[in-house]
Write a structure and sequence with these properties.
- There is one protein chain.
- The chain has one domain: Amidase signature (AS) enzymes (Alpha-Beta Complex).
- Helices cover 39% and strands 14% of the residues.
- It contains 16 helices and 13 strands.
- The strands form 3 sheets. Strands 6-8-7-12-13-11-9-10 form an 8-stranded mixed beta sheet, sandwiched between helices. The chain has a 3-stranded mixed beta sheet with strand order 1-3-2.
- It is globular and about 60 Å long.
Length: 476
């Protein structure tokens, strides 16, 4: 397969070539490897390569899944791949080789993908930018001086640059949607527990985080969720029901939806003029498509919401680091964990039981408030970012001034977290470009367990406002 031809296909397109015997999994894999080697020196998206293993898998008897023969990358955080190292972007939390695949990875393999390597992530997936002392910074294919987002920045950078057509990602406060927005991709944060977490999911005790993929097309996102999103044996959580395969939903009409939209931010500060203009343009397009479109925000007390979330998150994070301490038999030494992680670990240890439980109680009450809002509309529209993707130096995770970092991050990523708290599906779509050619994405959030509406609407917008022919600077 020619270098240029490979990246013109999405995942389902490559699998169709394999099925029609127009390309072999081995040929497709070599095209992916060629692209990784061509672009990774600049982007630093792929941080662990398993080419020899991938070649053996591609030459073997692959499962006859929807993505048979498609090269695929795993985020270096949480998901376990048998025999592969796992760093979590940390100098401290090291696993030399996982003993087995996690349940989600087994489902990826059953879908037919060929695992090629692992992608960059910040330490413990904490910030919305992908850089760490352990793995280094990951750059944006549209402009390598800019961030690729986080914490699935490696997955997004690799997918947008054409290394792979889609890649594993995860989202705890925006970590699928933010990188998808930065890199011009489709990024679905699924409903809570739609995909399996596996038996070692202690770090997901608070339920904010989900796994899925970033992709260049809506149909790849839908088809992979069909392949992985079914009940997990021994899971204590109810699996959200769906009416039909999501791949079918993409081609179905969304009907007339009631869509609320707003540029409101938690701190009340305005978003950039360019992003605001594209938001209004999106609302106008939706109205022209026959939807009922109303400018109205959620109107919730964001200060109290984030106070509650901070107590819960810090407690959970500190408990997670404590498990690493018990496993390794020592506390993290000086320089072994970065400033953001050290602050979270120490803060969590100071939180009392009643403070943590107050946070849980307040989140539950406020989640009900958010979900009640969705009884009066079908979809809530905001941007994903308040600005275009910023330069690396604007969001320096290694700074000693963590308050300045917090301020910069909240000014850039104000929209995504509430829907991790509620567990609702929330989707980033790359509908626009800035004057200087950077992606500007819009975020669509639906009622709990209603990915179907989002995929139908996304299919409609993919036709009405197509993005497939846009190419970043680092692609061909």
């Amino acid at each position: 397969m020619a270098f240029a031809d490979y990246a013109e296909h999405d995942g389902l397109g490559l699998a169709a070539l394999v099925k029609a015997k127009k390309a072999s999994p081995g040929e497709i894999l070599e095209a992916a490897i060629e692209r990784i080697e061509a672009h990774n020196g600049v982007l630093n998206a792929v941080v662990h390569k398993e080419y020899d293993e991938a070649r053996k898998v591609a030459a073997g008897d692959l499962p006859d899944g929807p993505f048979k023969g498609v090269p695929f990358l795993i985020k270096d955080l949480g998901a376990q791949v048998k025999g592969w190292p796992r760093t979590s972007g940390s100098m401290f939390a090291q696993v030399a080789a996982d003993e087995d695949d996690s349940e989600l990875v087994r489902r990826y393999r059953a879908a037919g993908v060929v695992l090629v390597g692992k992608t960059n992530t910040p330490e413990f997936g904490i910030p919305g930018v992908t850089t760490s002392r352990r793995l280094g910074p990951c750059s944006n294919p549209w402009d390598p001086t800019r961030i690729s987002g986080g914490s699935s920045g490696g997955a997004a950078s690799a997918t947008a640059s054409g290394m792979v057509p889609l890649a594993h990602a995860s989202d705890g406060l925006g970590s699928i949607r933010i990188p998808a927005a930065c890199c011009g991709l489709v990024g679905m944060k699924t409903t809570r527990d739609r995909n399996p977490n596996g038996g070692e999911d202690y770090d997901r005790a608070i339920g904010f985080s989900v796994d899925h993929v970033v992709s260049r097309t809506v149909r790849d996102s839908a088809a992979m969720l069909d392949a992985t999103g079914y009940p997990e044996p021994a899971s204590p959580y109810a699996h959200p029901a769906k009416e039909r395969p999501y791949l079918e939903e993409v081609s179905r009409s969304p009907g007339k939806l009631r869509i609320f939209w707003s540029p409101e931010t938690p701190n009340g500060k305005p978003i950039s003029e360019e992003v605001a203009a594209r938001l209004a343009e999106t609302a106008a397009t939706l109205k022209s498509l026959g939807h009922e479109v109303v400018e109205q925000g959620l109107g919730i007390d964001y200060r109290t919401l984030y106070r509650a979330q901070a107590l819960v998150s810090a407690s959970n994070f500190s408990a997670g680091v404590r498990r690493w301490v018990e496993k390794l038999g020592r506390e993290p030494g000086e320089g072994e964990i970065e400033g953001l992680a050290r602050r979270g670990y120490e803060a969590g240890k100071r939180i009392t039981g009643d403070q943590a439980m107050w946070g849980w109680q307040q989140l539950r009450l406020m989640n009900r408030e958010v979900l009640r809002n969705f009884e009066s509309f079908d979809v809530y529209l905001t941007p994903v970012l308040a600005t275009t993707p910023p330069k690396h130096e604007f969001l320096d995770t290694l700074t000693d001034d963590l308050r300045a970092f917090d301020k910069a991050q909240s000014a850039t990523f104000p929209f995504t977290p509430p829907f991790n708290f509620t567990g609702q599906p929330s989707l980033s779509l790359p509908l626009h470009q800035s004057a200087d050619g950077l992606p500007i994405a819009m975020m669509f959030t639906a009622r709990y367990a209603d990915e179907a509406t989002l995929y139908r609407l996304a299919g409609q917008l993919e036709k009405e406002m197509p993005w497939k022919d846009r190419r970043p600077a680092i692609f061909g």
